[in-house]
Design a protein that fits this description.
The structure is a single chain. This protein is mostly helical. It has one domain. It has four helices and no strands.
Length: 143
């Protein structure tokens, strides 16, 4: 359990670093200024997205497409709840702000989730290949 928690925290840090650096570069190119609440919200959204992706083991009995869609919808719902809670402290969210949240969350989430799923499925493929080799070796030894 502790090893899984450490792995999760490393993933959160990596995702946050990638998202914040990309956001800083985009802000510099576009000429926008950022504030501290934006940075904290970005970190919160990274924690939510990474946590939801880490729940993929709960969906092992379902198709990968179902898993991906449910995880995305859960991440969007939890993110909206998070922003709603933050709005009590930082000010109300405009209708345009909700759209911007969805867009700003979806683009990095889809890119990073694609990488995450690719990594999970490639690891599964490696494990299947290893199991197949073990079976072949056992079959050869028994003959």
């Amino acid at each position: 359990m502790l090893a899984r928690l450490k792995q999760y925290l490393v993933e959160v840090c990596c995702v946050y670093a990638l998202v914040s650096v990309a956001g800083a570069v985009i802000d510099q190119i576009a000429g926008f200024e950022t504030n501290n609440i934006n940075v904290m919200v970005m970190f919160g959204l990274c924690v939510i997205g990474t946590f939801v992706l880490y729940l993929h083991k709960l969906f092992d009995n379902f198709s990968p497409l179902f898993m991906i869609v449910v995880q995305y919808l859960a991440a969007c719902g939890i993110s909206a709840l998070f922003i709603w809670i933050v709005s009590f402290f930082a000010g109300p969210v405009t209708p345009r702000g909700w759209f911007e949240l969805w867009r700003s969350f979806t683009i990095p989430y889809v890119i990073l989730a694609a990488f995450y799923y690719w990594r999970v499925f490639s690891e599964t493929k490696k494990q299947d290949k290893l199991i197949q080799e073990i079976r072949e070796n056992n079959k050869a030894e028994s003959n």
